Each structure stands twice: as structure tokens, then as C-alpha cells.
Amino acid sequence: MNVIIKHVDLMNRIDQLIRLKATGRPLELAAKMGISKTKLYRIINIMRELNAPLEYDSEQHSYIYVKAVGFKFGFFTEEINTRKNHSSVE
What we know:
Blueprint: H1 2-19, H2 26-33, H3 37-49, E1 54-57, E2 62-65
Antiparallel strand pairs: 1-2
């Protein structure tokens, strides 16, 4: 279970850097993340398997999304509306 959480955390951090267009080259990104280049490529591949439209832009020297996407992983509480609509009878 811990491995999954670590992977999700890495994907979240990479996602933030992609949105800032600040990943740098793969070796730089791996160093920023404190992981090997091989592990970085594994995480990038997982993101792609999860349908992230992810590419490396050699002009910007950064990974980019080629389409607008959002990334969320986890459970979130939603406020449930417990009030029922009552129509008043006159």
C-alpha cells in the first residue's frame, strides 16, 4: 500500500511541475524528485497509462500536457444535501 501512496505522491508533484512548465530535462526532473531517471520514466509511463496526454517539449525543455487535464487521486467528502424538497399544500 505504501508503494501506491508514494507513486501517487510522485505523480502529483510531477503534475504540478508540468503545469508550471518547470520539469526541466528528464535527468533534472529525476534529481528534483530525488529518484533515478529509470524510476522517473516508469512514473511517466504510468501517468500515460492513466491517459495523461503527456509529451516532452524539447524547445521548452519540459514535459507538457498537450490537452487540458486535471489530476486527482483519493477520496474526498462531499456535502450531502439532506433537505428534501417539500411542497407546501395550501
